[in-house]
Write a structure and sequence with these properties.
With 505 residues, the chain is of the alpha/beta class. Helix content is 36%, strand content 17%. The longest helix is centred in the last third of the chain and has 18 residues. The radius of gyration is 27 Å and the shape is elongated.
Length: 505
């Protein structure tokens, strides 16, 4: 009897945890058993591994094989266990020696001919290797661009099982993947602010939202540029920091949407789910919990076009992640948390036909139709929008005028400066932007002068602001002050922040 151990990983949320693969070869009828709570895709690895080993011209034992994935009380899912299980069998067969595995982690799916295919969650595995103090990570060639940004570990990429075995035997060494530094090149966008004529107030709202990470609702008749404005928002957002990029790339990798050639993502994500989306697709979940749209938009933008067309039940699921910055999915066996700190941008018409109170078009909706339309969005959800901006029809003169408009690059520089002030201010805290300031820190970071306090007190009485509305006005005012490089919040900052809370919805 021979028993040997190899280290691989299992994905838990967006993090990877170590898993030990051990194989026992004993006398008896020919059989291949996999134990340790494997799902169907892991169980099917038996046939893939048998064919891959034989087609790689390596010995496959014709005896009783038992492979255990430990810890046995943790569910295992996916095809990333193919490579470590195959190596574990070869190790137990004596084809490879034990000493080459002590500081190495292996992941990869095997084709029937022994080719290594890419897997999801490679970046999470690389981060786990570094966290656990391991030295080497072996993975498929197509996952190389995703993980070569993680310093402090040796990354070996291979195209076939045979290449990995040759390396472990010392016959033909694989090269260590060179460390790749994140790109600092400015990216181009298909839609930028200079493409949008008029709508100065809405553009100002985009700048404030981008600077402080504030939620934004655009309201107006059809064809006024609401969707275009939302799609231009990524062009004024600063590029991701290294830590943010690791988070965003890990989420995309675990979700299986990361393009193999992308490597470490530098652009903030922009997600725009259709209004027919289910609650699970929006916030995540499933039997094996996967990140939803709110997590895929982490550190970026989640755009909900035609907001009232979404199911009210689905929209209510947004309330918790908007407040907490994460999604908690509970199952009987475990609880998984996915990060979900995103900037919510939504667009809506004022009524079903879209022309309520429009001076140029007649509204065909009855008052009851308009009331039902507005009730599709709950008050608590509306209260979570920091800025609510009307986007009226563009005047003919502005539409035809051939002026040079302010570019996204100019606005992005101001946004970047405001974000840098916030990074410096909150460097010893757990939050990054003004929108994330906890109520307990208001007295520290949102100091208001005497005139500003008087105006805010008057607004609390006249506008009947909720406690959440009050805190969001202060956060928006903090961002406006940062754009002006002011330390204390003045009456002008409070006044502008308050005008974005006025709504008739």
């Amino acid at each position: 009897m021979k028993s040997n151990t190899i280290t691989t990983v299992t994905l838990f949320g967006i993090e990877a945890m170590p898993v030990l693969v051990e194989t026992d070869i004993s006398y008896g009828l020919t059989a291949f058993h996999l134990v340790g709570l494997p799902d169907a895709s892991v169980k099917e690895a038996r046939d893939r591994i048998r064919a891959a080993i034989k087609n790689s011209r390596l010995p496959f034992p014709r005896t009783r094989i038992t492979t255990n994935l430990a810890p046995a009380n943790t569910k295992k899912q996916g095809a990333l266990y193919d490579l470590p299980i195959a190596l574990s069998i070869l190790l137990a067969e004596g084809e490879i020696t034990q000493d080459v595995f002590s500081d190495a982690v292996f992941i990869g799916e095997l084709a029937l001919d022994g080719t290594l295919r890419p897997i999801s969650g490679a970046l999470a595995a690389a981060l786990m290797v570094k966290r656990e103090g391991k030295k080497d990570l072996f993975l498929p060639k197509e996952n190389e661009a995703e993980v070569n940004c993680v310093p402090g570990i040796n990354i070996y990429s291979a195209s076939t099982l045979h290449e990995v075995v040759e390396h472990l035997k010392g016959l033909h060494q694989l090269s260590v993947c060179p460390l790749c530094t994140p790109s600092t090149k400015e990216s181009t966008y298909s839609i930028e602010l200079q493409h949008i004529k008029g709508q100065e107030q809405a553009k100002r709202g985009l700048e404030i939202a981008a600077s402080g990470g504030h939620n934004l609702l655009l309201k107006g008749p059809p064809g006024t540029g609401k969707t275009l404005l939302a799609r231009a928002l990524p062009s004024i957002l600063p590029t991701l920091s290294y830590e943010e990029s690791l988070e965003v790339t890990s989420i995309a990798s675990v979700a299986g949407i990361l393009k193999r050639e992308d490597g470490l993502l530098s652009l903030r994500p922009f997600r725009d789910p259709h209004h027919s989306s289910s609650a699970i697709s929006l916030v995540g979940g499933g039997t094996w919990p996967k990140p939803g749209e709110v997590s895929l938009a982490h550190r970026g933008v989640l755009f909900l076009d035609e907001l009232p067309e979404f199911s009210r039940h689905v929209l209510e699921h947004l309330r918790q992640p908007l407040e907490d910055g994460e999604v908690t999915i509970s199952r009987i066996a475990s609880t998984v948390r996915f990060p979900a700190s995103f900037l919510l941008v939504a667009a809506m018409n004022p009524c079903p036909c879209g022309y309520y109170q429009d001076p140029k078009h007649e509204c065909t909706c009855s008052q009851s139709m308009i009331n039902r339309y507005k009730k599709r969005i709950s008050g608590p959800l509306l209260d979570r929008f920091d800025l609510i901006i009307d986007v009226p029809a563009i005047e003919t003169e502005k539409l035809l005028k051939q002026d040079t408009l302010e570019s996204s690059l100019e606005v992005r520089l101001r946004v970047k400066n405001a974000r840098e002030k916030q990074n410096e201010r909150y460097q010893n805290t757990s939050f990054l932007t003004n929108a994330e300031i906890p109520v307990s820190s208001f007295d520290t970071w949102c100091q208001i002068d005497r005139e500003g306090k008087q105006l805010l007190e008057q607004a609390l009485r006249n506008q009947h602001l909720s406690a959440r509305g009050y805190s969001r006005v202060c956060k928006v005012a903090r961002t406006i002050a940062d754009l002006e490089s002011a330390e204390q919040l003045s009456v002008s900052h409070i006044a502008e922040a308050l005008q974005y809370r006025l709504r008739d919805i």
